[in-house]
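Why should sequence recovery work at all? Because a backbone constrains its sequence more than one might expect. Tight turns favour small or flexible residues, buried strands favour hydrophobic ones, and helices have their own preferences. The token representation captures these environments compactly. In the example below, the structure is given first.
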């Protein structure tokens, strides 16, 4: 799924460059598919390396070691551009108070920007998703066990429907916070469980089918009642409808070396593309969406390759040693 992850990062970049498909934001749909992939990969990680609840601390340390090295670098790089005035100050960091600025580096507050007054203080606007990922990592080890995951998934679906229908803030609870998105992560987890012998396949298949058919029913209802087509309802539902069969189909296939490398580049591309788009916006005000994507993509991939090699790969080697040591000691 490495190549898919890279293509999803490109879709996020294109959406931030201004690309839309009607009322569907392809970047939002891509993020939803990222959530499914995360659920799949985290389930594999827990089953293989961190099989006990007592391993939760080691699991969280592993995840922080994965997320923070490149994140801190790109946050610092973009933050220097913001604080130094090298580039025109963009609207998404109009609030330059030091407390909010430094809060960016903690990652977790970015996932709650809407409650912390950071909606105009995110150095990397897309980093809210990483705060959401951290929330998922903190909760997920408590849900290992088929019935617990299914129950939590069902509750999350109810929150999502409440947000979809406007009874809760749609964009917040239907896309950006864990209560309304947990079922998307758990859909990916269910796909991994289906690959494991001895799992309750009937219940898992029923859960995945219910999520997919339910998303289809909500999408049809939304088209029949356009007042429900508020951000980001169409995009999230499209992400579920496309992502479930796509991730399920790819999850059982062997990974090629090219696909693995593309996946290695995806995180850096996800983090650095906004800075590239900002530079293009500052110097080429008349650039089209295609111009922005073409001008940013190759430099962003090259920079991602550099930061993967220099920052992430050394930590990856240490993470593997930590896992091996943890397994020997437990």
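From this structural description, the recovered sequence reads:
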């Amino acid at each position: 799924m490495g190549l898919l992850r890279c293509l999803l990062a490109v879709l996020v970049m294109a959406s931030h460059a201004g690309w839309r498909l009607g009322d569907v934001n392809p970047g939002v749909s891509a993020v939803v598919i990222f959530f499914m992939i995360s659920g799949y990969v985290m389930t594999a990680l827990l089953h293989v390396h961190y099989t006990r609840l007592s391993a939760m601390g080691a699991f969280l340390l592993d995840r922080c070691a994965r997320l923070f090295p490149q994140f801190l670098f790109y946050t610092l790089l973009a933050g220097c551009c913001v604080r130094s005035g090298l580039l025109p100050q963009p609207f998404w960091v109009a609030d330059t108070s030091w407390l909010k600025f430094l809060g960016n580096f903690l990652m977790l507050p970015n996932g709650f920007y809407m409650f912390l007054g950071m909606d105009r203080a995110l150095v990397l606007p897309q980093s809210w998703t990483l705060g959401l990922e951290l929330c998922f990592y903190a909760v997920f080890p408590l849900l290992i066990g088929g019935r617990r995951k299914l129950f939590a998934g069902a509750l999350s679906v109810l929150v999502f429907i409440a947000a979809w229908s406007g009874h809760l803030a749609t964009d917040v609870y239907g896309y950006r916070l864990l209560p309304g998105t947990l079922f998307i992560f758990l859909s990916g987890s269910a796909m991994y469980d289906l690959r494991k012998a001895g799992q309750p396949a009937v219940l898992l298949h029923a859960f995945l089918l219910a999520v997919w058919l339910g998303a289809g029913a909500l999408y049809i209802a939304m088209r029949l009642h356009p007042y429900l087509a508020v951000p980001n309802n169409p995009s999230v539902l499209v992400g579920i409808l496309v992502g479930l069969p796509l991730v399920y189909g790819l999850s059982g296939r062997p990974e090629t070396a090219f696909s693995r490398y593309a996946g290695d580049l995806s995180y850096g591309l996800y983090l650095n593309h906004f800075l590239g788009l900002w530079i293009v916006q500052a110097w080429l005000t008349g650039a089209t969406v295609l111009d922005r994507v073409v001008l940013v993509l190759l430099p962003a991939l090259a920079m991602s390759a550099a930061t993967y090699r220099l920052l992430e790969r050394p930590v990856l080697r240490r993470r593997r040693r930590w896992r091996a040591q943890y397994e020997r000691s437990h």
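A few observations help interpret the result. The longest helix spans residues 289-329.
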